[in-house]
Please model this.
Amino acid sequence: MPADTDSLLLSGAHVFSKRFTLSNSATAGARLSLLQLSAAGILWGTAGVVVQVVAESTGLGAVAIGFYRLLSAAAVLLLLGLFTRDSTPATGARQLLAAFRGAPVVIVLAGAGLAAYQALYFVAVRLGGVSIATVVSLGIAPVLLSAWETARTRQRPGTGVLAASAAALLGLALIAGATVDTGAPAAGLGLLAAVGSGVVYAASTALSRHTTQGVQPLTLTTLSCTIGAITLLPIAAVEGLAFTPQAKPIALLGYAGAITTALAYALFYTGLRRTTGSVAVVVTLLEPLTAALLAVLLIDEPLGAATIAGGALLLGAVATLYVGAAQPTEPAAERAGEPAAGLAGEPAAGPVGSATEPAEIQPAETRA
Model:
């Protein structure tokens, strides 16, 4: 066999091996992101029972509890950031300040959005009932994000993503419908608050996904929780922040801050780095499923057929997205007969849910 032919075959084998390795790496990264987002949704789902117990024990309103939740999360994250083994307080403070200076407007909006959609959701629950608040607030976000991403990228979501989104929204409606509140005092105002919550949630997710490409997730979580707590403080102060200190509610508020907020949002922002916003909010619909199951286990709420069916649809949707992350499609540039551009000459790949699955973080110059 001629030497040049032998060399060509070796070169081709090397390219194939490199692309196969990159594809496997991208698939693993995409699946890990979906697991991180799933964990975030499950942790968020535990907050509902915690908030209910704290409210009954202390008499605090929902916004005040939300403030304490963000405040304790910010305190935990600031301590972690300022007093780690690899960082002195001065170094940690400089890193936070540098990250904030890099994108001050976006980070402030992300933090304020974190506070706003929680407050609006609580208002929607109070005025319109759990069913309206859950279906509208959580259901409108993936629809808005999918429309935004389609308009921005001029690529429609994959068939699997659309099917998973539809199944997840139907599952959400079934779970929420099992807890319809027929005594809602102001359903119309509750509906408006729920729409506002969903719009802010979608916008905050889109902003956060953009920001995670240049800011470490833990840093973004710290800044977002701090700004969110500051945003909620005036409303919470009017609602009332005083309560009699007791071990149980204080411990639960600590859990709500450290686990359901600090850890959950760190996982959420990490998962967003390799996942489109519309897919992320579909996966985190595990939150209402977790809340419903905990209500059955801990406060003896009945487990109806609608909740079971809705849970099955939600789990099926997440499983569909997880399996879909292992099915790469040929990049558009290569389909057109051109080499695909990527990091340092590597094959291009888009985030989970785009037309070029599986996920890879996009080069800085091409990020939206």
Observations:
- The longest helix spans residues 3-45.
- The chain is about 75% helix and 0% strand.
- The CA atoms of residues 296 and 303 lie 6 Å apart.
